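User: I'm writing a tutorial on reading structure tokens. Could you give me a worked example: one chain, its sequence, then its tokens, then a sentence or two explaining what the tokens reveal?
Assistant: Sure. Here is the example chain.
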Amino acid sequence: MPGAETDIPAETGAADIGSESTYDGAALEEPAADVASGSDMDAGEAGETSAPGEETGTSDDAAPESSWADEGDASDLALDGAPDAADDASLVEAETPVVEGGSEESSPSPGDAAPLAKEAAPDVAAPSSDAEPDGGASCLVPAGAPTCVPHGPCATRADIAIRKVLDASSPVVRIAVDPTSHDIHYMDLAGDIFRLQGDQGVLAHSGVDVAGGGVAEGMAFGPDGTLYVVANVTNGVTFQAIIRAGVPDGAGGRTWSTLATTDPIPESNTAFDHHYNGIAASPDGQYVFVNAGSRTDHGELQEVEGMFPGMREVPLTSAIFRIPAAASGTVLVNDESALVSGGYLFADGFRNAFDPEFSPSGVLMAGDNGPDADYPEELNIIRQGAHYGFPWRLSDIDNPQRSPTYDPASDRLLTPGFFGVDQGFYVNDPTFPAPPAVTFVDPLRNVGPDGVVFRDPTTGLERNAASEGHTLGTFTPHRVPVGLAFDRGGVLCGDLAGSLFVLSFGADTPTTLSDAGRDLMAIHFIGDNEITSSRLVSGFVGPVDEVLVGDKLYVVDLDLYADVPSSIWEIALPRVP
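And here are its predicted structure tokens:
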């Protein structure tokens, strides 16, 4: 799950967040007034091409540096080319009588690992809109539902309506729409998958069949309606990931099989065991892409009382793997050379890219949750063969433990209360490994205006990059970006047309920064490597996933510590007439 920072118990499938500790005035960059769209870098050659602000990891002798560079190409993310799913979820008669939900609130309404061809993404302009904010005169604005719900989420503008769809009796972690039936499905940690029918959830698939006895953390549909699920099975001090596929059987059910499993992976027995979670199916249906979270907070030693001497990350962690959708019983071995030669290792250097998602133009993107220190959370364009820095680089800042002079006592980015800080995991570490001889890819730069708060490394005081005329890479520390959803069919109107929507799960540990997240933001792309982020809805408890169906976002709000562990909200947005 996202946002560890001691937020969700690891045994239930928890995820983490980001840390760092060497900001410097150079860490902030003025937003580009005019950025050319397009990039000459091939999708598979990020490790071979230098760009301003990238770093080739060759030495640990120098003190850490901050580098705020352009990498990737946000202009590849044109959001206006693919058809959307149906405007509304079809209501299909259930075969299974298990039903949950029904809000009490009144409401109006995804073998052989043949390598992918390394093709340059199309050079197209990022989406833009000249429409007026708040919908504009030509937009259809939702009516009949409030913009704020008492003791619940609240919209920041009058052209957004919010209603609760249902309360779930189990911890729901994923929601997705079947592209063939247009039915919305959601999944809990047990692997039970429900079909949303009106304002009720009807059990469609039992976790016994789906998760293979594991904790289910990832779910995605392929373009043919195949349903892919990621689960994790813990065996003492190790765990194994299982990737399952449910193929429609033509009679309303699915035939389930195991695409792949992993070798046993050593646990760290900390909140930083992120396990395998997010999964995305390629637009052509040939591959699935699975996130393998880290087992450490920031690359520190996690030896489990001497059981795993010298262990930090291993080949099967902190990466995104690509598995053929036609695979059957594939085993991912804990050997980097075998993962590379087999075509399974797609991209490396992530702490926890909890929610990979393809844009309408076929570009893979993901957020990445930062560590327990106050480092920015990332949004990345994922390129084949690229390395995104973890654990040597956190956001676009060098991990301070690379410096032989690092003194945690003077590190102003360490905030008490966070597990990794309180447990003393930030130390002067002469054995910290040298970085690989590759060019690290830095995250997208964020212009704001929202989600760009950071902590000054010299004073320890809060600052706001947008109000100072700078950019941040990418979001406020501890926001935990999850739940990417694109406006695929040009359904939305005004300033929300062509948007990417991103949720903030937030940290379980209360942050002392004013921007705690737990909200919904709209993202737009500026040229090659910059974005804007604007808050639309705040007041969630732990929004973990979302799906956009027509002009409505369905958001899963998770609270493992409540009597009602999860709710699903419908966020109605302004749409074209």
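What the tokens reveal: The chain has three helices and 34 strands. Helices lie at 207-210, 336-341, 419-422.
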